[in-house]
Amino acid sequence: MNCPRDWPEPIVRVQSLSDSGISEIPERYVKPPTDRPISLSSSSQSDVNIPIIDLQGLFDNESKSFSGLKSSLIYEQISEACRNWGFFQVVNHGVPPELMDQAREVWQEFFHQPVEMKQCYANSPKTYEGYGSRLGVEKGAILDWSDYYFLHYLPCSFKDHKKWPALPVSLREVIEEYSKQVVNFGGRLMKVLSANLGLSEDYLENAFGGEDNIGACLRVNFYPKCPQPDLTLGLSPHSDPGGLTFLLPDQHVAGLQVRHNGHWITVKPASHAFIVNIGDQVQILSNAIYKSVEHRVVVNSAEERVSLAYFYNPRGDLMIQPAKELVTPQNPPLYPARTFNEYRLYIRTKGPQGKSQLGESQKSSTS
Ligand code: OGA
Ligand code: NI
């Protein structure tokens, strides 16, 4: 099975719509009443935040002042966050704060170029690489209020700088370094998750294909100002299909909401934190000890928003299935073995649809 070569309808850039100064959004962005940001079927909670974990010293083996006790405390906090939330923020993760700012800035600059400059990178559903404005190829689908840019970093054979924007001039260099650092951090965190699951440290990374073969790709989301933010969403509810996601959110504008105990929790980003979340492949490998969690993005009329989602994924052609070590007569395997390539086609064809790709109905996750 393959994705079609072309989109079912002409692509409209949401940024152009927003810039045109319309006061009402076109019908194809208007969600049915139950799916809107504020609806009777889902309440929001504003006084709760996802856990924030300080990783200071965790990866710093040389540090004499860092006791094993403190390290085990951090492992414990991560374990708890993975089990109970599937979503947490990390600070003091080792990726330089200036690099995070630069990475966000080059993409802001990219999106603020004239539309003709960006059109050279227009993407197709075949690979999704490049400048895009929809996820899914179903004709007549109701669309989300966002544009994005999608690119590959790993495996090396997928990386093609020509598919990364040439302008602003520093973009390729900054994103190359940013990618290296995020992937390095991702590998370290995978070790912590493996150990916390009672597996060997390298288990998850090996299951993903090993250091040089994992998939790492970046999706930069651009959410333009929206004249009727109560009628639409920047990104519809979904769980991330891959392994782990490292999100660099907008430092000033909130918008990401996470589903927790039936409520939508608005994430309040800590300074220079990454938001980490469990993807479907880790749910499968851990046989649902860790669960991927639904999230969505709301937009607003006052400010645009930019976020960088780094996806740490298995190599596309490897079979992913529950770890044998975690399967017992009491805990039979909950998922069949599938390759990530096969798995990812669902969201690439249908667009964001809650957690239905894991066989979980959208209703059950609200309760
Ligand atoms: C994503 C995502 C959240 C955000 O790109 O998968 O969930 O805040 N992004 O943009
Ligand atoms: Ni996501």
Task: Give a short summary of the structure.
The chain has 367 residues and is α+β, with helices and mostly antiparallel strands. The protein has 8 helices and 15 strands.
Write the layout of secondary structure elements.
Elements: H1 14-19, E1 43-45, E2 52-54, H2 68-84, E3 87-91, H3 97-111, H4 115-119, E4 130-132, E5 147-154, H5 171-196, H6 203-207, E6 215-223, E7 235-238, E8 244-248, E9 256-260, E10 263-266, E11 274-278, H7 280-285, E12 295-297, E13 305-313, E14 319-320, E15 338-339, H8 340-350
Helix pairs in contact: 3-5
Structure description:
The protein contains eight helices and 15 strands. With about 375 residues, it is of the alpha+beta class. The protein has a single domain, classed as B-lactam Antibiotic, Isopenicillin N Synthase, Chain (Jelly Rolls), CATH 2.60.120.330. A hairpin with a 2-residue loop joins strand 9 (about 255-260) and strand 10. Bound molecules: N-oxalylglycine and nickel (II) ion. Nickel (II) ion binds near residues 240 and 295.
